[in-house]
Amino acid sequence: MNAPAITKTLPSAEDIALARESGRALSTVLLTRAETQQIDFHDDKGSVRAVRIPTSALRLLLEVLTEIGQGNAVSIIPIHAELTTQEAADVLNVSRPFLVQLLEKGEMPFHKIGTHRRVRYQDVISYKKRIDTERHKALEKLAAEAQELGMGY
Q1: Strand pairing partners for 42?
Q2: β partners of residue 116
Q3: Any idea what the Cα angle at residue 56 is, between residues 53 and 59, rounded to 5°?
Q4: Which end of the chain is more exposed for a tag (fewer CB within 10 A), N or C?
């Protein structure tokens, strides 16, 4: 399975406004307990096509619209996706050489396809959560030490 491209393109002002408007409309539709919803799509020729969509997919769409409405770029990556080292580095916001060092040190599992390393998206996110937790603990410890020393923090 090919991993989708991870883009960092920010939405335009028009996209932000439209995402906010459509997100508000969609949120009212999602008050239902139905497992599916029907949406009518109108093409440029006036034809209408009704499409049934799982409500869970519409909830995901609402999350996407909310992020776009806040001016954020959005990527959707399947949990079981395999990423290239560059894609994984982009998710972690580190350089590719730094990510390769992490892989070679055993900080994160990977496998090779030929000579190319592949990392599961799930493993990248697990690593990120672990590192974020360690950083948070270190900051709490520093803040507690600063309090004890009366440093005004």
Answers
A1: 48
A2: 113
A3: 100
A4: N
